[in-house]
From TrEMBL:
The species this protein was found in: Chryseobacterium antibioticum
Keyword annotations from UniProtKB, A to Z: Phosphoprotein
Name of this protein: Response regulator
Database matches in PROSITE patterns: RESPONSE_REGULATORY
Gene3D superfamilies: 3.40.50.2300
Lineage: Bacteria, Pseudomonadati, Bacteroidota, Flavobacteriia, Flavobacteriales
Name of one Pfam family that matches: Response_reg
Residue(s) carrying 4-aspartylphosphate: 52
Biological process per Gene Ontology, one example term: phosphorelay signal transduction system
Domain Response regulatory: 4-118
Record SMART domains: REC
Length: 118
């Protein structure tokens, strides 16, 4: 059975690249430019959630991850924060993300992070 990934990014080109790469690696990807998939997380049942810190809307990605980790129903879902922020390791730790991917990222590194967390 394919591992499921929810992918939320702020940039459409990056979203498409990550989606394509992960699907080629055998993942079942639900990708979005909004947090809509998070509202359907019970239906999707992802193995890992990848969220950019600067997503569209009124919430940062780190806040989305913090809320997932605080909810007993979703606390076990692996969460990966992505960003161009210089303090990304600290932000990831603060929101209890399982891992992080610094942008711009190396494709092989991104694949390894997702595989290690799914």
């Amino acid at each position: 059975m394919k591992k499921k990934v929810v992918l939320i990014q702020d940039n459409e080109e990056i979203l498409e690249i990550m989606d394509q790469v992960l699907e080629e690696e055998g993942f079942d990807v639900t990708s979005s430019l909004t947090t809509e998939p998070i509202e359907k997380i019970d239906e999707i049942e992802p193995d890992v959630v990848i969220v950019d810190d600067h997503i569209r809307g009124n919430k940062k990605g780190s806040k989305v991850i913090e809320e997932l980790k605080a909810d007993p129903q979703t606390e076990d879902v692996s969460a990966v924060l992505t960003s161009t922020s210089f303090d990304l390791p600290e932000k990831a730790k603060e929101c209890k993300a399982d891992d992080y991917i610094e942008k711009p990222f190396d494709i092989d590194h991104m694949i390894n992070v997702v595989k290690n967390n799914s």
